[in-house]
Amino acid sequence: MSVVTRIARSRAAQESLGYLGASYLKLVQGTNRFSLDPPGAYDWLTPLRPFIIAMWHGQHLMVPFVRRPQDRAATMVSRSVDGGVNTAVLERMGVRVIRGSGARRARDIWAKGGVQALRGCLKALEDGESVAFSADVPKVSRRCGEGIVMLARMSGRPVVPTAVVTSRYLQFDSWDRASLGLPFGRGVMAFGEPISVPRDLDAAGIEAARLRIETDLNAVHARAFAQVGRIDPVHTRKGASAR
User: Fold this and answer.
1) At a CB cut-off of 8 Å and minimum separation 6, what does 241 contact?
2) Which stretches make up the DUF374 domain (predicted)?
């Protein structure tokens, strides 16, 4: 293990980076003029709590903006080194972290803590905490996996597609096409219609629920970007690739 890796794995380094990351996000949150789409979103979201906040992975640092001081929320974060830094950031943003992540191969799910983390998410929902959940298939951007469908099916809680965007942002060339807001602009926190997943769904029903979450998440991102006068850069890039 290299010296850099050992330092990155240290609790002190992760806490320091977490402090800097959270301070930056609070600057972004405080200097952008955020609006809700639809405008009265919290009026109908509050009675739904606890619910599952569906997000694309690249939004995992901005989605905590939707949490009000009185709201309790938790999320899954991988056990990787990057996950340690993300944990430190999110905890400073008021989000409780459950360590673990899914995997594309079934045999890897246990090693990555995915089963234990899913149980933790179920317990959080039972205890009244809303859960922010990345819908993507691991390492596949903007393709919804079955994990979020299973969480909704087992918990009985609705899924709410969510997007947080700013008019000024950095776009990264990472697998999840992550974006990070910049200060001093406009922002939108957008929500889609709640999606219920019945417990008795067959395979076709599960696939239909998966596709609906994927479609609605892309739609809510497109709507949010339109509100700040931009076009979803990930959607545009995918369209260009398809052509």
Assistant:
1) none
2) 68-140
DSSP annotation string for 175-238: TT--EEE-SSSEEEEEE---B---TT--HHHHHHHHHHHHHHHHHHHHHHHHHTT---HHHHHH
**What is the distance between the alpha carbons of residues 112 and 40, in angstroms, rounded to a whole number?**
39
For residues 235 and 201, give the distance between their C-alpha atoms in angstroms, rounded to a whole number.
30
The helix/strand/coil state of 1 is coil
> In the chain, where are the structural domains located?
11-228
Architecture of domain 11-228: 3-Layer(aba) Sandwich (3.40)
Give the burial class of 45: count Cβ atoms within 10 A of its Cβ; 0-12 exposed, 13-18 middle, 19 or more buried.
buried
Give me 118's structure tokens: 């899913």
3-state secondary structure of 123: helix
What is the C-alpha separation between 31 and 182, in angstroms, rounded? 9
pLDDT tens, 16-42? Answer: 999 999 999 999 999 999 999 999 999
The pairing of strands 52-55 and 96-99 is: unpaired
Q: What pLDDT is attached to residue 113?
A: 78
Q: Is the pLDDT higher at 112 or at 217?
A: 217
Q: Give 6-40 as a DSSP string.
A: HHHHSHHHHHHHHHHHHHHHHHHHHHSEEEEESTT
Measured on CA atoms in the order 71, 138, 7, 182, is the torsion positive or negative?
negative
